[in-house]
Design goal:
single chain; mainly alpha
Length: 165
């Protein structure tokens, strides 16, 4: 990964992080307005939807920070080490939490007639997609572990070869 691509990645991550922060501020305001303006029968839907949005944006921010840290490790040539696992594990946990949160939102929306069944189905589908993404990242983590192990073996072999020579 070249220096220009790392800089571009960091610019994109910073824009996403700042954009999510701004939207979170707006969503908190919407949550306040929803608690005072709605009738009791739909207030729980508005509150849960806005809370879901705030938490989803928090998950995006956590993933941005972890990818930022991994990009720094790539730039320094230390990405193939066990220390990188913690950032990937955080990403997996965040996406998994987002999947569970999406299923919970669908369950909250399901009982009443206020929400169309198609919207509940879309929430369930999004939960499955997020679970699939978490699984893909987990597989990529396994590949990182394998590459780290191979890198360590190569370093050991280089050390042995230098000792022989």
């Amino acid at each position: 990964m070249g220096k220009s691509s790392t800089i571009l990645l960091r610019v994109v991550l910073a824009l996403v992080f700042i954009g999510a922060l701004v939207i979170q501020g707006q969503a908190a305001w919407w949550l306040y307005l929803a608690s005072s303006a709605d009738t009791a029968d739909v207030t729980y839907l508005h509150r849960s939807t806005v809370l879901y949005a705030v938490l989803a944006l928090l998950i995006i921010q956590v993933c941005c920070i972890c990818v930022w840290k991994l990009a720094a490790r790539v730039q320094h040539g230390t990405v193939f080490s066990p220390a990188s696992y913690k950032f990937v594990n955080i990403i997996i946990a965040a996406i998994s939490f987002g999947s569970i949160m999406t299923f919970a939102l669908g369950a909250i929306m399901a009982p009443g007639p206020e929400v169309a069944p198609g919207v509940v189905l879309l929430a369930g589908g999004l939960g499955v997609v997020l679970a699939g993404i978490a699984l893909i990242v987990w597989v990529l983590r396994q590949l990182l572990a394998q590459a780290s192990h191979t890198e360590a073996q190569a370093a050991d072999l280089r050390t042995e070869l230098n000792g022989v020579i």
